[in-house]
Every structure is written in structure tokens, then in C-alpha cells.
Amino acid sequence: MSRKARILVVDDAPSVLAAIREMLSPDYHVKTAASGEEALNLLGHFKPDLVLLDITMKGISGYEVCQQIKSEQTSGFIKIIMVSAKTALEERLKGYNVGADDYIVKPFRPEELLAKVRVFLRLKQVEDQLHTLNLTLNEQVRLRTEQLNNAEKMAAIGRSAAGIVHNLNNPLQIIMGNAELLTLRHPEDPMIMSLRKAAGQMKKIIGTILSTSYRESSTEYTRIDLNEVLVNQIELLRADPFFKHEVTTETDLRPLPPKRGIYAHFSQSFSNLIRNAVEAMHTGEVRTLSVTSALEADAICIRISDTGHGIPARYLDKIFNPFFTTKPLTATDGSPTGTGLGLASAKEMIESYGGKLRVKSVPGRGTTFTVHLPVT
Question: Which CATH number fits domain 6-108: 3.40.50.2300, 3.30.420.40, 3.60.15.10, 3.90.180.10?
Fold first, then answer.
């Protein structure tokens, strides 16, 4: 149910205040003030949408009250109708010059006052909606600009990393070539077989890094296979010994329609969520990472689950706040560290595409992050 519009009636004549209050109270939330000073004191906590303002009062005049209301940034959108017995044109013009939106002469007909009230309340509502829309658009522009700047920074880092990784290819080829020769001479040697297998895995990881770095260096909107992004991020983690040897990975990736966007936005978001899940299992006995994707109710749904220590209920409403983390910034025992930016960044990226990021967690059993993205 929408709230009643708020109207402040200012007049030093009690009979006028009573008559207008009786007229407006059935449809509006009405407060009265018998002086300009009282009216200004009421503004802060009553926050009217419309002020019906007498001109000639003891103390501060209606003109001064009007000018002060309109000069305040927080009250500049309040509509003001001057209600006065003064009929001279210069009085009306003076009212308009100090910011009044309209002028009605006493004695007035009730239906005329009610009509003016309705008109200016509708205008106030439209102006409020436009103001809110403008703030929203400005915030969206700020977020998009920030994302593009971050994407460009990550692209530069990606190009640098790709160059370094590319240079690893030459020594890796030598290792793989020598491993092949050793295999021909000692085909049953388990150490040589292990060396060949490790070199093959390293080649695959380097290929994934180069492919991902190339895509992340682009800030253009393209059609993205989100399942491929998930697979690549999981594959990149295989360079981590803990993930490779201690974590069991389960995937169930159903066919998804391509999602239009910037590749780096999704790769960074999914990487943050997957790494967070893996790090949550660092001290656990059962370590299973589950990644699923599917179409659900005309939306892309991706779930990333772990069997880690879970998140206490008191932290669930804070984990997406920038810089909030339960991990230390540094550690000497190999424990995961954090800055509190990964989840906040992932949520911001996903929401910029009209999506939602939700979390469910049971302490001692694990956590599931769910990404919902519109198909279009």
C-alpha cells in the first residue's frame, strides 16, 4: 500500500488551519504550523510533499519560508502553493520569484484548492521518479565505467602473464622431447612415465592459460559459452597441488545458450567463486567441489558448492561487503588468505548483467553459491 502524500499547512489563522485540515485529512497526511519558524522546524522530520503557505505572518514571512525551503538541496523538490488574501500582481510575481509553484487567493473555493493540490502532488511524484531514475542511471554508469577500467587493467596483466607463460613453452618442449627419448630406452620405468604425464599436464595447463589470457585481454562484448568458462577455471586450478591432490571435483554442466558479455567479467567472477569454495575446504576431511549449470525457469543457473566448514549465520549478510573476510591477510602455514574483495567483485559483476548471486550455507557441512543470469 502506497503511503499518503504529506501536506504541511502554514497559516497564523487557526480557523484557516482547521478548515484546510478538515478538507485534506481524508486523503492526505496533514500537519499544520502557525508560523514560519514552526514550519521550518517541522520540515526535517515531517518531510512534506506539498506546502500550503500563507504570506503575511508574524516573524518570518511566507516569502522567506518559501525561499529557504527552495534553497535547501534536500527540500528543493517540495511543491509550494502560496495561499494569501493579497491579490496584486506584484505579490504573485514576488511569490514566483522566491520559488513558489502556484498562488491561490483567499477566500478560495474548496474544489479549486483540491484540484491544485492533486495536480502538484502528481507533478511531485513524477519529479521524484525522474530524480530516482537519474541517480540509478548515474550509479550504473559509474559501475560500468569501473568495470571497464578493471577489465582493461586485467587485460594488461593477462597479456603480461600470457607472454611469460608463452616463454615456458620452449623449455617444456625440451623436457617433453627428452622424456619421449627416455621412454624409448626405458619403457617400463615408472619415474619416466610420471615425468611424461606431468609434462603433458603442464602443457595442457599452459594451453588453458594462454587461451584464457587471450580472451581476458579483450574488452569487447562477445557470445560466451559459460560452461567453457567454468571448465577453464577448474582446469587452471589444477596447477594448485592442494586442489589437484586433495579435492574431488564433480561437474554436471547442461547445455546453455550463449551469454553476451565481456569474457573477463565471467572468468573473474567464476574464478573467485570456485577459489573461495576450494579454500573453504582447506581444513576439511571431505573435500568435494561441485559445479553444475542448467536452464531453470528461463534463466541460466550455475551452482558452485563445497563441503567445507560453512559460513556462520551471523556473517551471511556481510560476506558480499567489500573488504569483509574471515581469512587472514597473510599466513606462514599455507592457510588461505584473503582481502575480502573476491565475493564483492563477483556479486557486482553478476548484477551488472541483470543477474543475482545467492548463498546458502550450513556450518560444518558446506556452502553453495548460486548464480542466476537472464538468458537474454
Answer: 3.40.50.2300
